[in-house]
Design brief:
This protein has 341 residues and is of the alpha/beta class. It has two domains: 4-204, DHBP synthase (Alpha-Beta Complex), CATH 3.90.870.10; 233-338, Threonylcarbamoyl-AMP synthase, C-terminal domain (Rossmann fold, 3-Layer(aba) Sandwich). The protein has helices at 12-19, 41-51, 66-72, 79-88, 122-131, 151-158, 197-204, 241-254, 281-296, 315-325, and strands at 4-7, 24-26, 33-37, 60-62, 93-98, 113-117, 135-136, 164-167, 178-181, 188-191, 233-237, 259-263, 274-277, 303-306, 326-331, 337-338.
Length: 341
Amino acid sequence: MITEILRGDNLSPAIDALKKGEVVAFPTETVYGLGADATNSRACQKIFEAKGRPSDNPLIVHVLDIKGLESVLAGSMPKAAAVLTEKFWPGPLTVIVPSNDTIPPLVRGFMPTVAVRSPSHLIARALIAAVNRPLAAPSANRSGRPSPTRVKDVWQDLHGRIPYIIDGGDSLVGLESTIVDLSVVPPLLLRPGFIGLEMLESALGERVLIPGAETPHKAPGMKYRHYAPRAPVIWINMREDHHIERAIVRLQKKFPNMALMAPGKWQRMHSGSFVTLGDTTEDMARQLFSGFRELDQRKPDAIVVVWEENDRGVGLAVANRLGKAAALEVKEEGPEKQVTE
């Protein structure tokens, strides 16, 4: 298959393809998505085939607004869904609600619920409006790889596997959407994102819980290792500079060809491949996946990330992605944590 990159002002070929049951990669404010008509099971099967995605991993359905949510909802609108969509849509928030038969079981991961969001990116919204159908769209990458935040990331993973990629520039957020399960009481934060736990609780006026290991896998990213480059990722999760310095020295001895992602001050300690992380957690979120991809192309022995975990706002989301990508976590207290599948 020949893959064509389209400009944002030339959407007609992509719209026609979606109407005919094909898949198209397009930009959203979070990451690039790989979309198909969410009501067409065969079209959505092509998403799984192109990505190499397990069939029990549900897809997120993209709609324009609350009316789009109502069109796939079974029963009455949960009060929490009305509150959160009013406040945060369009934007990087996915809500999980009971599903009617509009959305095929394959798209829902064979669950009775469906994950729905309303993207704010103008190209994504133009596609949904023109196709006049909800679009199922996970991230536009090979399954398990870092999510794509640039059109070249999508090309790297999916050229020759899909007909069109729409170029909409770099993703604004850089991490996938927050996912909150509103089919249960109290709500569950299944995947942290740019809209943090505190923002959800403030809007709802109630606690939002973090799920346990026994929670059903209703959302993408819960069951399988995700976000990982080919090189093993080692996360230095420390606060004190002298501990970080010792960890970098020790890892350089173990991995002579290692790459480093860290605040700029640590570049003095590393003569090899280096990506500077920004000054804020939001900068870190935008740079994480592109940094993984940039360093991975240089074929290092390992990619070492220096970042101190925090659970405030988007910090919880960054920790979630690093935790799923990392093969090893190094902390100041206690033994190193070997991360397993």
